[in-house]
Amino acid sequence: MAFQNCLRGSILTIDLDAIADNYRILRETANPTKVAAVVKANAYGLGADKIAPLLQNSGCNIFFVATLDEAVQLRSILPHAEIHVFNGILPGWPKVMIEHRLRPVLNSLEQVNLWHKHAQNMQTTLVADLHIDTGMSRLGLPPNEVEKFLQTPLYSNTIKLDLVLSHLSNADNSDHQMNLEQLNKFQAITKLFKSKRFSLAASSGIFLGTNYHFELVRPGIALYGGNPLPGKPNPMAQVIRLRAKILQVRSVDTPQVVGYGATYKVPGKMRIATVAIGYGDGYLRSLSNTGKAWIETYEIQVVGRISMDLTTVDVTSVPTHLTQVGAFVDFIGPSQTIDQIALSAGTIDYEFLTRLGQRFHREYIGGH
Ligand SMILES: *Cc1c(COP(=O)(O)O)cnc(C)c1O
What is the CATH number of domain 33-224? Predict the structure, then answer.
C-alpha cells in the first residue's frame, strides 16, 4: 500500500476527478449561464493550489476568494484567470489589488470611495464589482447606499462596474419565502444598473431554477461534494475520503470507563480500538459518543470523548483480522458523506471541510 512509509496516522484523499465532475454537473445545471468557482479558504480546506488549476483545465476562468492574501496567492497559481475578492478592500489595499490584477467586490460606500479616490489619484478608471444587500444584512450596499451610489455621477468616471452581485440567505431551503423576495429585489436592481453582468446564486441557488442564474453563478461547496440540497439526495460526487489507522486495540469489560470525563461506561465484554485521529485534525469533538465509522463494511461507533489526537471506537463486531494495528478506519467516504457526518456533528459540511487540518497525509487522486 502506498501509505506504508507514510509517517502520519491519518489520510485525507481528495478526488480531483470528482471535483471536475461536479464542475461539469453545475455547468449543465446552469447552462447557458457561466459558472465561476469559489476557492476561498484554500478551496474550502482542500487545497487551492491543486484545485484551481484543475478547474481552469475544466474550462473555468472566473474565480472568487474571500481575502486579499488568498487572491494574491491564487494569482501566483493562475496568472491569467479573472480573480474576484469577496471581502473587498480596506485602506492600504487598492495598490496591491491593482498590482496583482485583482477585482475587489465593493461592499459598502466606504469601499466604493476608497476605490474611487485611488482611481482619481492614479487618474484612471478601475474595474470593480458591486455587492448589493438584498436581505442578508452582512456585506453589500443597503438600499439607501445604492441610491447614493447612483446619484453620484462622479463614480462613473473612476469606477468601471463589472459584476453586480447579491447573496441569498436561504437558498438551501427552496421553500423559503426569502428566496423569491431577494430575487425580486435583485431583479429591480438589474434595471438600475443597465448592461452589466449580474450574479445572485451560489451552490444551492443554482438549483432554485434558471431565473436565479442571471449572467454568472458562484458555487463553492457543491464543487467539493457538499450537498446543495440539504435533506434531499446529494446530486454532487463525493470528493473526499478520510481514514485513520488503528494504534492499539484492547479488550475491556465492566466496570471500565473510556476517555476523558469517563463519559462512556463499558456495558460488557468489548474490544475498543484507539485510532490516530482527533479534534486536532478536525475530527470534531462534538462527535464524541455519537460518531460513526467503518472498517470495510462493518459500521462501528465512537465511544467516549474524542481527544486532540485520538478517537476510541467499538470494534467488538468486527473480525479481529480487520482490526490489527495499522488497519484503516473509514470516517468519511463511500459509507458516510461529508454532509452526513457534518449533520451528526451538529454542524454543516462547510464547517467540517474547512476545519480539516494540516496533520493529515494529503493524497490527491485523478486530475490527469
Ligand atoms: C462563499 C460564497 C459563495 C459560495 O457559496 P457556496 O454556498 O459554498 O456555494 C458565493 N457567494 C458569496 C458571496 C460567498 O460568500
Answer: 3.20.20.10
> Which residue's alpha carbon is nearest to atom 6 within ligand 1?
220
pLDDT tens for residues 267-316? 999 999 999 999 999 999 999 999 999 999 999 999 999 999 999 999 99
Q: Evaluate: CB of 218 within 6 angstroms of ligand 1.
A: yes
> Measured in angstroms, how far is the CA atom of residue 272 from the centroid of ligand 1?
41
Ligand 1 atom 15, closest CA: 86
Q: What spacing in Å lies between the alpha carbon of 38 and ligand 1's midpoint?
A: 7
240-365 architecture in CATH?
Beta Barrel (2.40)
Q: State the amino acid at position 347 in one-letter form.
A: T
- Protein residue whose Cα sits closest to atom 4 of ligand 1: 220
High-pLDDT (> 90) share of the chain, %: 95
Please list the alpha-helical segments (H only) found in 208-300. none
pTM to 2 decimals? 0.96
Structure confidence at residue 368 as a pLDDT band (50, 70, 90): confident
Compute the Cα dihedral for 28, 30, 33, 34 and give only its sign: negative
Q: Tell whether ligand 1 has an atom less than 6 A from the beta carbon of residue 167.
A: yes
Q: State the cell numbers at 137.
A: 444584512
- Residue 1: C-alpha distances to residues 17, 274, 322 (Å): 21, 21, 15
Quote the pLDDT of residue 232: 92
Choose one of 22, 35, 38 to mutate for the ligand 1 pocket test, by most ligand atoms within 8 angstroms of C-beta: 38
- Ligand 1 atom, smallest distance to 139 CA: 13
The verdict on the CB of residue 38 being under 6 Å from ligand 1 is yes
CA pair distance 279, 286, nearest whole angstrom: 9
Name the percent of the chain in helix, strand, coil, to the closest 5. Answer: 35, 25, 40
- Confidence band, pLDDT 50/70/90 cuts, at residue 4: low
What is the mean pLDDT of the segment spanning 93-117? 97
Domain assignments of the chain as residue spans, ordered by start: 33-224, 240-365
Catalytic residues: 40, 260
